[in-house]
Amino acid sequence: MENLALVTGGAKSGKSRFAEGLVRAMGAQPIYIATAEALDEEMSHRIAAHLLQRGPGWHTVEEPLDLCGALQRTDGRGPRLVDCLTLWLSNLMMQDLDIDAALADLSQTLKAQTSPVVMVTNEVGSGIVPDNALARAYRDSCGAMNQRIGAVVDRIDLVVCGHPLRVK
Amino acid sequence: MENLALVTGGAKSGKSRFAEGLVRAMGAQPIYIATAEALDEEMSHRIAAHLLQRGPGWHTVEEPLDLCGALQRTDGRGPRLVDCLTLWLSNLMMQDLDIDAALADLSQTLKAQTSPVVMVTNEVGSGIVPDNALARAYRDSCGAMNQRIGAVVDRIDLVVCGHPLRVK
Amino acid sequence: MENLALVTGGAKSGKSRFAEGLVRAMGAQPIYIATAEALDEEMSHRIAAHLLQRGPGWHTVEEPLDLCGALQRTDGRGPRLVDCLTLWLSNLMMQDLDIDAALADLSQTLKAQTSPVVMVTNEVGSGIVPDNALARAYRDSCGAMNQRIGAVVDRIDLVVCGHPLRVK
């Protein structure tokens, strides 16, 4: 059975919508684990748009940093949608936390889950090399995270123009 | 029958060449609907290079804004190649026109076409998040457009290194 | 038999690791043709990380510019991994060399190889259009190179989250 899934794609490619469909197909009482924080107006607008798109029936958990804790607390209560890993990584980096340790923890936690987990991530490494070192470090970290979580999950889909390409 | 197709990919991935092949296979007397305007030398050079690549036998229609009108006027006269949707969207945004209404119109117009339409679009959302808000808005709009048109067409191809990956 | 392969993907997508696996499967005594030069600390760090990842058993040839020469000198001695074409292109551009002639030479040289060659390249054209003309020229040249080499090889893989999508 496919218990762990990773959904990737570019900005506004339809990743979240596709991931929501996967989660709904995995069981009743879906749980939305939001890693985003409404720190400015643009982000608030994005969060509200996602909420509208999901529709009713979701239990929402907000967890910008302790994703492993959120997964452990919600296991056994329904399929989970984590949206998204790249924002979580960015939150960790802003707090100067140990990325490597966090990814090792997440991999271990994922393997121990009994209820399904679908995670949304982003393709950020297919543009021109960024000018500034921080952006380069961020895109490298996103790529490394996607490889590492991609090795643990049962399926990977790349969403293009709203449609999935099965990768794993 | 596949009457409507969307071809996407990165810059210089071979999208246009692949789309031209699709259109030629769909019937004689192909029509090229160009959304680009030769506003500067670089753009003139790109337009000339595309013209050379297509070779003879194409009827060219230039239409930077009223894409629905161009489709309606050319329906029944041959298969159409629209190159490209992202430039059209950029033209609409520069004129401050209603994107949502334009996409609704385009979806309706496409569904009513009797001759084939192949549209070229671009992947612009797989790099690092842009610094400036206008670029973020543009890449979000491109993504939303690709999802919306992707829902209407019969097939979607992602072109990578000159070769198509069938998405839909 | 698949003698020539092109492996593409975004930054840190797992391209090199996948390409290394392909080369190892193609024969004993693999040869690593490195196009990178350790011009600064960040690049030295990246080169060292790739070296560690490959592990022992590779013969390394450093060749930032004369890739055709390196291929000719190593033919018949084992399968080759070229990592990567985009850095090679960037080296050519920095020396103001003729890109078109270099790509024609490379295509001819590749067709004449008797031992396998796996080449790593990068997707750099799926972000927002860059502000500066040099970056636009570079991403156009990368795309054109990927199309041209993509036409010569027997297989193309797009690596996403560490996993390959077969393109050709």
TrEMBL record, chains A, B, C:
One of its GO terms (molecular function) is ATP binding. Transmembrane segments: none annotated. InterPro entries: CobU/CobP, P-loop_NTPase. GTP binds at G9, G10, A11, K12, S13, G14, K15, S16, A34, T35, A36, E62, D83. GO terms for biological process: cobalamin biosynthetic process. The active site is at H50. It holds the Pfam family CobU. CDD domains: CobU. Signal peptide: none annotated. Pathway: Cofactor biosynthesis; adenosylcobalamin biosynthesis; adenosylcobalamin from cob(II)yrinate a,c-diamide: step 6/7; Cofactor biosynthesis; adenosylcobalamin biosynthesis; adenosylcobalamin from cob(II)yrinate a,c-diamide: step 5/7. Keywords: ATP-binding, Cobalamin biosynthesis, GTP-binding, Kinase, Nucleotide-binding, Transferase. Its EC number is 2.7.1.156, 2.7.7.62. Catalyzes ATP-dependent phosphorylation of adenosylcobinamide and addition of GMP to adenosylcobinamide phosphate. Belongs to the CobU/CobP family. NCBIfam families: PRK05800.1 (NF004469). This is Bifunctional adenosylcobalamin biosynthesis protein. The lineage of its organism: Bacteria, Pseudomonadati, Pseudomonadota, Alphaproteobacteria, Rhodobacterales.
